[in-house]
Design brief:
Number of strands: 0
CATH class: Mainly Alpha
Radius of gyration: 19 Å
Number of helices: 5
Number of domains: 1
Shape: elongated
Strand content: under 5%
Amino acid sequence: MSRYHPILVTLHWLLAVLIIGGLFMGSNLLAQTPNSDPFKLIALKMHMSIGIVILVLMAIRLAVRLVTQRPAHADIGNNLINRAAIWGHWGFYAGVFAMCVSGLAIANIAGLPAIVFGGSGAPLPVNFDNIAPRAAHGIIAKVLILLVVGHVFAALYHQYIRKDRLFARMWFGNRNGGDDA
């Protein structure tokens, strides 16, 4: 087995775009927009919708990963780095699920579903600072950003320094070998 299942490949790249977009949106756009700005409702609707889609797709991805065959873990010749890579991948799953759960908790405590999606007409809270899961959401965001940066650097290291074609494993093509990518 030389490649991941095509569903995992598709979900990997789709989730990469959604997660990076959600992190960027939350860390920049939402963080910089006061809750009194009418645009904040539009931005929150987009951010929350993306978060829900991420949660559903991550659950599907985890289920597919658990039931499909996959390539053996990459062996870089260093047991500590090999284990760190495995834990880093599982860290993505844990971090993304924790991010989604903390986001849902913030939304429910602040009454956002009715405000953002239900058109209740109620204003947003002055801020979200006094909502306990908000701190966790911010910390998890920073951890996920570090995981993304580490993941990208590791992929570039494999592709351009080790030249071991590890990148091809997470691309489309013949799963049993071949150079059709």
